[in-house]
Fold this protein.
Amino acid sequence: MYAQYPGQPPPGYGGPYGAGYPAPYHGYSPAAPFNALAIASLVLGLLWFGGVASLGALILGIVALHQITERDERGRGLAIAGVVLGGMGVAGAILLIGLAIANAHFVTPA
């Protein structure tokens, strides 16, 4: 056995000067930012303006999805919503244009 002197810790409890201080606490790491194109895609998807905004939402949403994957950003759900709304808007615009052409074809002048 080891001889124990007053003021010394028992054997196996650190070095002669104690264990030292713990590592400093740096808090949480900052959250990844939202992709701006994903937000713009969602906003344009909610607007329609005759399909023009929907086409922009579709394009921006696809670009945002690629950027989110590459840059590890947030906003994947926003980009997907923008793509879905943009696709629905473009399909609606094509349907309306088709109906207008069909209606103009069947209307006889008086």
Notes: Residues 36-106 form one domain.
